[in-house]
Design brief:
The protein has about 375 residues and is mainly alpha-helical. The protein has 17 helices and no strands.
């Protein structure tokens, strides 16, 4: 029994870490917009924000997956009741579902923007294509979905690290010179953060970024952890995934700071980096970026369907609901890529800060007597 509870498969660690990475890497991360706004906008201090985010991504990712292994919930959004109690938990379930559905629209809009800007095609082609991919992935089922995104995630991370390193090796200008041109783009400059110097800072931007992304990923990570062979495997899968996500981001931050003036006005700064040392690879990287967008949109769409599934009587109705929500997400994307990101991400980051505190307190400072009860309720 002891061996089973401590069993760790290297293959599973890679799949789980890759799935975590792929879930997080959406259009904002893949294009470089999130990285530029949350980290590069603070210049060299942005690397401090990266370190803060890495700690949160790794520790919380591991803890959430481990708790997912313990709970084995039928409906993953119910995990909020475990962390926050019944009433607040139910409220957060729906807040998260609405947020994730909004992010799906962001991913669809981002695909449209990418196909228009880089490929010169109508943005509708990209938006419709991503919508179809998301719907099709849901209808394949969770295990198939996990296999798909688990294989894409590590490729995105490795490619991002490679792009960042090669950019720095080939850069000829001074590092972080005139980085102040990026300052107005900082994520903490919006909402009420700018009123307080301690919050309008690199370290808090790192907290805000991790809070937004981890909060949105709580149900997914909980479900992913339930597939692990042991608590140890679940924890290290989440921990390593969290480290990889921000390690790649930190390297890209360092690379972008060689070209602050050039990237300030770009929608897809990551493609600019590739073009500096290997223009031919830009086409390959553009495909990698699209895979990154898909690898976030599809599992987030699955979480939304998973929440609604408890009221869906049969498979045919599930297919119908999935198709209808896909259409709604597509039309939601018409509000605009930048507008959706500017409103949703800072808002959910604020909610996420409170949720992270609840997770830390529940996991590390309270007993687990409710775990058995919740497992019994979900049999």
């Amino acid at each position: 029994m002891e061996n089973r509870t401590q069993a760790v498969s290297i293959r599973n660690l890679i799949v789980f870490a890759g799935a975590y990475c792929a879930f997080t890497i959406g259009s904002g991360y893949a294009t470089g917009q999130e990285i530029m706004q949350f980290f590069c906008a603070f210049g060299p201090e942005g690397l401090i924000g990266c370190f803060v985010s890495m700690v949160l991504f790794a520790v919380l990712g591991g803890a959430l997956m481990q708790k997912g292994y313990d709970l084995k919930l039928k409906y993953q959004t119910q995990v909020f009741r475990y962390y926050c109690g019944t009433y607040i938990g139910i409220f957060l379930e729906w807040v998260t579902v609405i947020f994730l559905f909004g992010v799906v629209s962001i991913m669809i809009a981002g695909t449209g923007a990418m196909t228009s800007e880089y490929y010169g095609l109508s943005k509708e082609i990209g938006s419709i294509g991503m919508t179809v991919l998301c719907v099709a992935s849901i209808l394949l089922g969770l295990m198939r979905l996990a296999d798909i995104i688990g294989s894409i995630g590590p490729v995105i991370i490795v490619f991002s690290i490679l792009v960042g390193i090669l950019t720095m090796l080939n850069a000829s200008g001074a590092w972080a010179q005139n980085w102040q041109v990026l300052y107005e783009l900082r994520a903490t400059g919006s909402w009420w953060f700018a009123r307080y110097a301690v919050l309008d800072s690199a370290w808090f931007s790192g907290v805000l970024y991790a809070s937004c992304m981890v909060f949105g990923g709580i149900p997914f990570l909980t479900g992913l952890g339930s597939k692990a062979n042991s608590r140890k495997e679940a924890f290290w899968g989440g921990f390593l995934g969290g480290v990889a996500i921000i390690l790649a981001a930190g390297i890209l931050v360092a690379a972008m700071l060689y070209f602050p003036e050039e990237i300030a006005a770009l929608q897809v700064p990551n493609l600019f980096l590739v073009q500096q040392f290997a223009p031919v690879l830009a086409a390959v990287f553009s495909v990698i970026l699209l895979l990154g967008i898909y690898s976030t949109a599809a599992p987030m769409f699955w979480v939304v369907i998973n929440k609604l599934e408890q009221w869906i009587p049969n498979k045919n109705v599930k297919i119908f609901v999935t198709l209808v929500l896909g259409i709604i997400a597509y039309f939601g994307a018409q509000l605009g890529f930048g507008r959706l990101i500017g409103f949703l991400y800072p808002l959910m980051g604020q909610v996420g800060v409170l949720m992270i505190l609840a997770v830390i307190i529940r996991v590390y400072f309270m007993n687990d007597k409710d775990v058995t009860l919740m497992r019994e309720e979900n049999k």
